[in-house]
Amino acid sequence: MDTAERLRAETRTVWATALCFAAGAIAGFIVLQGPPRPLTGPGSLSQPVAVIAAVIAAAAFVTSTLQHRRGETAPMPPWQSAVSHVSAVALTIVFAAVTALGVLLAGLVFGAGLHDFTAPSLGGGLIAGAAAALGGRFAYTAGIGIRTRDLSALLFGFLAIGTLFAMATAADPLWWQQNFSQLGLGTGGWAFNGTLVVAGLLFATVGSYIGRDLHRLRGDAALRGIAVVVALWAATGLALAVVGLVPIELSRVVHWIAAVGTLLLFAAAAATSAAALPGRPRALAIATIGLGVLLVAAVVLHWPIRLYSSTGLEAIAVGLGLVWMTTFVRVLAVLVPDLPRVSARATLLRG
Fold it and tell me: What's residue 113's pLDDT?
């Protein structure tokens, strides 16, 4: 993309932001008719504003994708085009979920700081417009050309936002003395469980983009190995989604099998992804060894030293895993060309 095209894209982004604000403000004004509402709690602004902003963010991503990448899949074989379209649908859901949870978390934070604040329908409409503008701009920009490392950062941010919101709305304030699964219990458990389901979808999408980048790097000759990589990331996402869909109060056995399966599948997906890279990038090797040592140390500090609960170990393990993924996709971005690569294979596994 040359300088002139970048400036045109930025101009379109500004107009998209303005349109998102206008759409959000109008929808908010209509939906929030009635007496003034508080920022959070029963009958508050947060829930309807979150829905409005999420819908507009999803629409912004779809619009941007059609504007900037229309025809990109036309020369591709059906299987490659299908993978691209499924990934786009998954990202549409993800951007809606990220926006909604971001609005809900912001409502809790501002609600705690602005006691007794209420807003009439006009003020609520302006708040909805601001939320829609932020979410819509973020999604529209992503539609211009999202990269694998952008998805990794999105996954990290989404898990952080969703977990923080779940913590703030947890039924049991002492949940941290046991494990993160306690956040999925009770009437407020939907926040944590929903976060896991959408994060599972995002894991699978990240795997699809990793497969795309590996294909750009290695070509059709490596498609069988790349298919295994993508399948393992998809399985990791599916297992994580099952953790959210089956909380421990519904079935403790299924929940823990899915949780352990998520960790094992993540390790397998990471190992096969690293093995698919040509050569042995030093940055990735150093990160893998260093993070492995830190994980062993974290396990020792949890058991037998018992410095912290299972919650602490889970947080450290997830954090280290996401740091490794971030390192991997950044190394991959250095190696991979930016231009799409059309497969010459009529089917995925056979020419």
Answer: 93
Whole-angstrom CA distances from 218 to 24, 75, 225, 340 are 44, 19, 10, 13
The model's pTM is 0.93
User: What's the average pLDDT block by block, 10 residues per block, for the chain (351 residues)?
Assistant: 83 97 98 95 94 98 93 91 95 97 96 93 98 98 93 94 94 92 93 97 97 95 95 98 96 97 96 92 94 96 92 96 95 91 84 55
Residue 119 φ/ψ, nearest 5 degrees: -135, 135
Q: How far is CA 100 from the centre of its chain?
A: 12
Rounded to the nearest 5 percent, the helix, strand and coil shares of the chain are 75, 0, 20
Residue 86's contacts (CB-CB under 8 Å, 6 or more residues apart) are 208
Tally the C-alpha atoms within 13 A of residue 142's C-alpha that lie toward its C-beta: 26
Q: Which amino acid appears at position 95 of this protein? A: F
How far apart CA 141 and CA 304 sit, in angstroms, is 48
Residues 6+ apart with CB under 8 A from 8: none
Greatest CA span in the chain, whole angstroms? 66
The residue with tokens 């990109």 is 72
Separation CA 65–CA 59 (nearest Å): 10
What tokens appear for 186 in the block? 């009770």
| Identity of the residue numbered 176 | W
Nearest to 239 by CA among 218, 212, 267: 267
Which three-class secondary structure state does DSSP give residue 119?
strand
